[in-house]
Every structure is written in structure tokens, then in C-alpha cells.
């Protein structure tokens, strides 16, 4: 199942790359920079490290004895101690809540926890169209954070022409979004519009 999601990551990245290649307003310098940004996005899917592998789980819990029914609290403390020790020792794998149903983007990494890969967002052996509408949309949304206003403001914009084109297109998209967004999102929309306008200043 997670291998299918990994393949979808590859396809969604390829579509983003094609869109950058066919862009009429990006200069070659910025096209290369944006493609490098896209290529640099790391995607973590499922459980961090080896925690999903049965042999790892057996090895991990081997030091623990069977839990006596009448003494749950001491066993719980021992389990917490074991987990804390693992977190201190494991410095190479990302540690995140795999049960979370929320995907997120941080720095240049997209995290899709195991808890996010379920119906109706993803159907194992389901039609590709349905899965791309669910998890594919999530991937596209998270990838876009690498190119949104907050992230790109950190980047150096030496071309005023590219900056103005980006701002013009982003504001057009914002107006389109605002025309269908609920009034509850109005304040958020105003903040985003101010960010975009400050970018072109």
C-alpha cells in the first residue's frame, strides 16, 4: 500500500516538473532554481524508521515481560522508559506521530503519516483517479508549500520581472479562491493578500 503512495509521489513530482518546464514566464535561472527546490523535497510516508517491520517490533519489545493484568501501571512505565530510550538512541530516523491523520510540510520535507493513508483519502487497489483525487491532492498541496509566499520570501529574488509575474498570478488565484471561500476565511485571505502585495513591493 505505501509503495503505491511512493509511486504516486514520483508521478506528482513529475507533473510539477513538467509544469515548470512549460512555464512561459519563468526565466531559465528561476526554472532551474524551482526545479532544484522540487527535487530537494524529501517525502516521508508511513511510519518513521523500521517501526512498521514485524521483526523490528519483536526486537523492540523483547526486553518487556508479558503484562500482568493486575499490574498495568508498572508495565506502562517500563514501556515508556523503553520508548524514551529508543528515541534518544535513534538519531537518524525522523520521529513523528504516525497515527496522525494530518500530512504536513516542514523545511523541505513532506510527511504523510500512516494515519493519513486511509479511506476515503486512499483506497488500496482502488482506481488511480480516486487515489489521485485524495492522496494526490494532499501531495500537491504539500509540495506547493515549497513555492508559496512564505517560503519564497526567504529565497533571493533578483529578478523583479519574475517577482511581479509571480505576484500577479498568485493574486489572481487568491481572487478566484476568495470568490468561493466562506466569510469565515475572510481575515486569513486578507493576511495572504498583504503578504503577496509586500512581495512585489
TrEMBL record:
It comes from Rhipicephalus microplus (Cattle tick). InterPro entries: MetalloPept_cat_dom_sf, Peptidase_M13, Peptidase_M13_C, Peptidase_M13_dom_2. It holds the Pfam family Peptidase_M13. One of its GO terms (cellular component) is plasma membrane. It comes from the Eukaryota. Gene3D superfamilies: Collagenase (Catalytic Domain), Neutral endopeptidase , domain2. One of its GO terms (biological process) is protein processing. Belongs to the peptidase M13 family. This is Peptidase M13 C-terminal domain-containing protein. One of its GO terms (molecular function) is metalloendopeptidase activity. Residues 105-182 form the Peptidase M13 C-terminal domain.
Amino acid at each position: 500500500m505505501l509503495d503505491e503512495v511512493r509511486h504516486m509521489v514520483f508521478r506528482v513530482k513529475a507533473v510539477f516538473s513538467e509544469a515548470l518546464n512549460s512555464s512561459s514566464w519563468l526565466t531559465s535561472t528561476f526554472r532551474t532554481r524551482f526545479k532544484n527546490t522540487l527535487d530537494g523535497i524529501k517525502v516521508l510516508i508511513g511510519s518513521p524508521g523500521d517501526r512498521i517491520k514485524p521483526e523490528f517490533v519483536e526486537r523492540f519489545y523483547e526486553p518487556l515481560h508479558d503484562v500482568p493484568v493486575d499490574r498495568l501501571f508498572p508495565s506502562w512505565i517500563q514501556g515508556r522508559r523503553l520508548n524514551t530510550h529508543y528515541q534518544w538512541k535513534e538519531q537518524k530516523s525522523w520521529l513523528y506521530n504516525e497515527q496522525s491523520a494530518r500530512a504536513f510540510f516542514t523545511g523541505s520535507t513532506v510527511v504523510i503519516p500512516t494515519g493519513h493513508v486511509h479511506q476515503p483519502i486512499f483506497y488500496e487497489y482502488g482506481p488511480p483517479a480516486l487515489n489521485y483525487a485524495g492522496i494526490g491532492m494532499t501531495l500537491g498541496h504539500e509540495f506547493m508549500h515549497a513555492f508559496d509566499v512564505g517560503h519564497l520570501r526567504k529565497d533571493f529574488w533578483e529578478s523583479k520581472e519574475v517577482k511581479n509575474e509571480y505576484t500577479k498570478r498568485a493574486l489572481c488565484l487568491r481572487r478566484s479562491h476568495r470568490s468561493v471561500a466562506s466569510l469565515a476565511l475572510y481575515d486569513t485571505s486578507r493576511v495572504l493578500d498583504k503578504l503577496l502585495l509586500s512581495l512585489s513591493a
